[in-house]
Each structure stands twice: as C-alpha cells, then as structure tokens.
Amino acid sequence: MHRRTLLGVGLACPLASLPAVSLSAQERFPLRPITLICPWPAGGASDAVMRAFAESAARALGVPVVVENRAGVGGTLGATVMMQAKPDGYTLTQLPLGVYRLPHMQKMAFDPLKDLTHIVGLSGYTFGLASTLDAPFKTLKEMVAWARANPGQLTYGHTGTGTTPHLAFEEFANLAGFKTQDVPFKGSPEIAQAILGGHIPLMCGTLEFMPHVKAGKLRFLATLSRERYKALPEVPTVKESGWDTICESPFGIGGPKGMDPAVVRVLHDAFKKTLDDSRVREILDKFYQPALYMSTEVYGRYAQRTFDSERATIERMGLSKKS
User: Fold this and answer.
1) Which CATH number fits the domain 29-124+249-316, given the four candidates 2.60.120.260, 3.50.50.60, 3.40.190.150, 1.20.140.160?
2) Could you tell me where the DSSP H helices lie in the chain?
3) pTM (predicted TM-score)
4) pLDDT (tens digit, 9 = 90+) per residue, 70-108?
C-alpha cells in the first residue's frame, strides 16, 4: 500500500523553510495509521465494503487506514470500543443501525448520542429473503401460507438478535400472521454456510447471498426495499406482495465523543471523497449497496431521528429492555 505521512514530509524539509509559527496539531493530522473498526466478521460484504472505503480514504489521508474486525453484539462492538478510545481521530468505527436500536433493548456500555462523534454517512444495506431450493415453498406468498399452516416450524437465520434483518422479518411475520423460530448468527457468511448446508431453509440478510442465487443454489423470494431493485426487476418486494414492511439501513463512520472539529473535517472530507472512487463504487454495486452521503451535520441529525424512531419500533414490538 502506498504510504506518505505528513510527518515524513515535514522531516524532509529544512528547518529554515518552516514558517515562524508552527502548524497546529489539527493541521498536521494525521501523522500515523488510523484504525477503522468493522463490527462484522471478516470475509463478508461489510468487511469488503469497509476495506474498500479504508483503502480509498488512506490515499486521501496519506496514511494507512487499517481495518480491524470486531464482530458480535449486533454490530455494536465498534461503538463500545469508542468508549475507551482517545478522541484523536486515530480510532474510528462503522456505525450500523443497531447502534441506535440495541440501547432500547438491553443495557449497553455507550449512549449513541452522547458518546459518539458522527463524522460522515456513506452507504446503506439492502436486505432480502432467500430460501433453499428444496424448501416447501417457492414464492413469498407460498412461504407465508406454509408458515401459517405449520405454526412455529419456519426456521430462518439472521445477523443477530436486534439487528435490522431480525426485526424486519419479525415485523413482517407479525403482519402476515405466522410464528417463526429464529437462529442468530454473527454475520452473513455464517448464515450462508448454514443455509447452503441445509441446516436452515430460509435467511433474511444483505444481498451478499446473490452469488448463490445466480449459481442456482438458493432462491431469491423477495426484497425488503421500498421498490424493486433496478438490477433485479424480477424480484418482488415484501410490500408489493401485501405486507407493509420496508427495511432501510444507512451507515457511516464515527469516532469517540469530544473530537476536534478540525480533525472531523479532515476525516469527513477524506471519506466523502471515497464515494467518487470507481473501485469503491464497484464494491458497493457488487453488494447492492447505494451511496448515501450525509454531511457531519446531517449525519448527526439522522442519528437523533433514528434513535427516536427505533425506540418507537422497539416499544411497538414489545422488545424494550426491562428497567
């Protein structure tokens, strides 16, 4: 990886050429590698996307951006790590939707509004339902009919209790009037192994299962998007099939609370620039993830709005944490 730090440039300059007033610490940021936490397992879509963002941002920043996988707890371990990290801009994390949801469901080590600095919104997940070829249903409506006729026998996998795929499917099941047995996994790669191995007949997750659909190993039943994907016009949405369930899940980059605004600006600008990178766009397209840019200010407002809306969703589903 190409590496050029501002510190190295500074050392290469004769002292006599430096201005009388030294640069501030913020103007010299960054001087060393930055850690970007991916709160999902290595090898999945989230990992690939975050590594693409990291490589592109590294070129803009002039220092390596090293991805560190911290999987578990519905994608919130990155936010937990921020509680101990220095607010110097050298430790960052992806902020998936669960960061604003799980605090309403269980006791967490962080407050998503008070303990984080929201730097920039970048993209979002798209979700769908896929089944094995030998499942006792071939369409979404057939799946609902089978699940109603066999109460509690429909088993499906998702990316963890309280994650967007889990809650979206449970809300859909509630609207459609059937009971399920859910099986949580740490991430989509584990779900794929389970469904391809015949251990579960159905999964709800990101569209990284598409290669298995194209290979004829899985059946794509429906998407949870607002509209049909342009790249997959033949796949219906859950909503158009008769159940008003729409699943949208933007994410961005954050750091610990108390970050210097000048450092935030540097990071914001570098990561915003990644959305113009053809390689990043290629990876996003591969996993059916749109570019969803939000400035620092807009992303902060999104966090507040989402935290409030997730509270309402959790209360409606009866999943609020016990006091």
Assistant:
1) 3.40.190.150
2) 6-12, 45-61, 77-82, 98-101, 140-149, 164-176, 188-196, 210-214, 261-274, 278-286, 296-316
3) 0.79
4) 998 889 999 999 999 999 999 999 999 999 999 999 999
